[in-house]
Amino acid sequence: MIRRLAAATSPTGVVTLVGLLNAVLFALMAFAHWVGWGGPDGLESSGMTPGQVTATSVFVVVVDLVCAFAAVSLVVLTRPLGRRWRYRLGAVLTVSAAVAVVRVAALGDVGRPVTLVDDVLDGAATGLGYVVALVGALLVADLVVAYEAQMRARTAAEVASARQVARLEAQEGVRRRLVADRLHGAVQNRLVLLAAGIDQVVERLEPDRPDDAAALRRIADQLAEVSERDVRALSHELFPTAVDVSVVRAVRTLLDRLPPSVAGALDLGPTYRDLVDHGTDDPIVLPDRLVVVDTVEEALTNALKHGRAHRVRVRLDVERCVAGDAPLWLVGVVRADGRGPSGHVVLGGLERLRSRLAARGGGLHLTGDERGSVLRFDLPLRTAASPEDTLPGDCVP
What distance in Å separates the CA atoms of residue 171 and residue 207, rounded to the nearest whole number? Predict the structure, then answer.
């Protein structure tokens, strides 16, 4: 309830709304009390016609409602929010007493003769009713103010956390690229130089010591294999080729590296294409690109290794979310023929990627049968224009 009130109106509006509700209920209770104490009967006994009794009863209701509205309006005009309760109680007591006196004076001895004591008791009861109604409204408004302050503090903490995460992710991307460049450049070059030096030694040993030369030749071949396969693969895992350009370019590079016997295709959904066509080179920030490309690469590897796939199709699109904090979500689907997982699906290497996606508010789901497999993943979209947006967790496209 407090959350809905905070979202629907301001704290002053809460005082007005709750105060009017309480005051109107009290006014109706006061009218019922007047009826119960024989107000209409007293009017009839005084010689009034039924029409006059009805008109007088309506007058009593109107007076009660007008006094209720007046009490709430006067308290709101004193601007009690943000002030000490000493001031608030003083304003409430003053307004309640004044309006109660006006009500007693307006109604007088309508329906029955009253004494001064009756007027005092009626005024005290009326004033107390106004006090309860107005203090209750102020308490609810305080709860709304406290809730809004808590939400502002929470939002500020989330924004600060998101900014810190964005900075750390940016630093991680820089480090990953630096290490990948050094592996691909300095380390691989040194391995190539070592292999070249061994080749020179082999050339000198071959005439006199062919067995030793052959052994060294095998070592040189192993160094070349490590340089070309292991170091290059590790460099690619740290920073996939073309991921700094765009996800589309990086995924196409992965598909181009598939064996000739495997047909690969990339489809872009209309919303994704629309973002790119309107000048966004890539609607995904670099840290999220790494997760997306790693997920696609793992899906392709599993499709070829376990499913013996001959056709794979990758689809990327952006879907709009009608609820939650993130208006846009990246949705990726990798379909492969061959043999898909059946029964209880063991994610294996995909479990690590699902954890990485979940840490960013996304998810991953793998299904399959004898006709193939379908891997679906989603990720709240943080564009380059707003990389520090808070990540949502309550909306899935």
Answer: 54
Amino acid identity at 277:
D
Q: Which of 121, 136, 157 is the last residue of a domain?
A: 157
- Tell me which residue range forms the domain holding 315: 244-397
- The answer to the question of residue 184 being in a domain is no
Burial-class residue 275 by CB neighbours within 10 Å (0-12, 13-18, 19+): buried
Assigned domain for 208 exists: no
**Alpha-carbon span 371 to 225, nearest angstrom:** 36
> How many domains does the structure of the chain reveal?
2
Name the strands in the sheet holding 372-380, side by side, starting at the edge strand that comes first in the sequence: 263-268, 311-320, 328-336, 372-380, 363-369
Contacts of 353 (CB under 8 A, 6+ apart): 291, 294, 295, 298, 364, 377
Domain of residue 281, CATH code: 3.30.565.10
**Do 132 and 270 have their domain in common?**
no
Residue with tokens 């991307």: 173
The token duo for 285 is 């920030």
**Over the stretch 199-219, which tens digit does the pLDDT of each residue have?**
888 888 888 888 888 888 888
Cut 0.70: pTM above it: no
Structure tokens at 309: 């796939």
Pair (259, 381) in one structural domain: yes
- Res 284: pLDDT: 80
Is position 378 within any domain?
yes
> In the predicted model, is pLDDT for residue 335 greater than 90?
yes
Give pLDDT, residue 281.
61
Backbone φ and ψ for 238, nearest 5 degrees, come out as -70, -40
